Amino acid sequence: MSNTRDRMPEKMLAARQKEAGGRLSIEEIDVPRPGRGEVVVKMDASPINPSDLALLSGGYLERKYPFTPGLEGSGTVVRSGGGIMPGLRMGKRVACSPNSGGDGTWAEYMVTSAMHTVPLPRNISMEQGSMMLVNPMTAMAFILLAREGKHRAMVNNAAASSLGKMLIRMCQRSGIPLINIVRKEEHMDALKALGATHVLNSTSSSFESDLKQLAEKLGATLFLDAVTGSYTSLLLRAAPDGTTLVAYARLSGESITADAGELIRKNKEIVGFQLGNWLQKHNMLFKLRFIKQVKKHLGNELTSHIHHTTPLAKVEEALAEYRQNMSEGKIILKP
Question: Whole-angstrom Cα distance, residue 15 to residue 25?
Answer without folding.
Answer: 6
